[in-house]
Structures are given as structure tokens and as C-alpha cells.
Write a structure and sequence with these properties.
about 25% helix; two-stranded antiparallel ribbon; about 180 residues; 6 helices; disordered N terminus; alpha+beta
Length: about 180
Amino acid sequence: MRFWMTVAVVTGMALPVYAQDVGSPDAGGGSGPVTPVPVTPPGPDMSATPAAPATDGTSDAASAEADVSQLSIEEVIGQQLGAFNARDVDLAWQFASPMIRNLFGTPRNFGVMVNQAYPMVWDNSAVRFVATRESNAVTFQQVMVQDTNGKLHLLEYAMIKTSKGWKIDGVFLLPPPDVGT
């Protein structure tokens, strides 16, 4: 059994704020160990684009929320990664689940946590989507992320389907796969 804990790092204090039993890596139809794969540079669809200015009196955040409701899991993750690269924390916040939003309260707090706890997400240079598995009402998407130093990191995104589309409900940094000695 594996547990996942999200740690909030805000104003220099690390506080465990959420723990969830996510089962073993192979539970729920997983495909077993994942081996490193070449990382493909993100294409144009991986770049963040700022929300178009609202012309109907709604806020930019509301417009961005409406624009993301029909995106696939890969598009949601890719656009959030692009938003972090562009330092558009408000856009990245649009892809966070209600639980994540409740934990961090503001886009700024969320951005500080990602910057400090997930530097490979904050500054990513390439992404490859690897494997998907389902467990209960959560879909887990494994993603190989290359940081700006060229190091590969295997992440697993917990994705939930809401009335506003797919949302990121947590990110796990997976241990590197065992490679022959």
C-alpha cells in the first residue's frame, strides 16, 4: 500500500496538509513499472496562452475556467505545465481541483508551493505522456518531465472529472525505475 501526502510549503513552513491511500503502483489496472523514454519537446499545444479578455463582464479567471471544460487529461496537464513555464499562476490555478484550491486558498500560495516542492514542474523543458490507470473515481496519468537541467522525472497526476472538466487533484513524484546494475 502506498500513501501520498501533499505538503504545503508557504512562507518557508512545510506542513503536511493531505494524505490519501492510493494503493500500490500496479493497482487499478496499471501497466507495471515504467521505463524511461525519450522526451519529446512540447509542441504548440503545450504552450500556455493567456485567457482572452472577457467582453461580457466576466473576469479573465471565469473565461479561462469556461475555456478548459472540454480539454482532455493530456491537454489539461500540458497547459498547466505551459502556464508554469510562462509564470502564469492564475492560468495554472484554473486546472487545480476544488480540493487543491481549498488547501492553498490563492493562486499565489499554490504557485509558491509548486515552485518550492516541484521545481521540475515549475521549470520544465519537455514532457511525454506515458501510462494511464484508473482507481475508483480517479484517473492517474504518468508523465515524464524533463527539467531545465536535462534531468528526467517521472510524475503521476491524479485527475478527477468535474462538471467543469478534468482537474488536477494531486501530483506524485515517482521513484526512478530500477535499471540493471
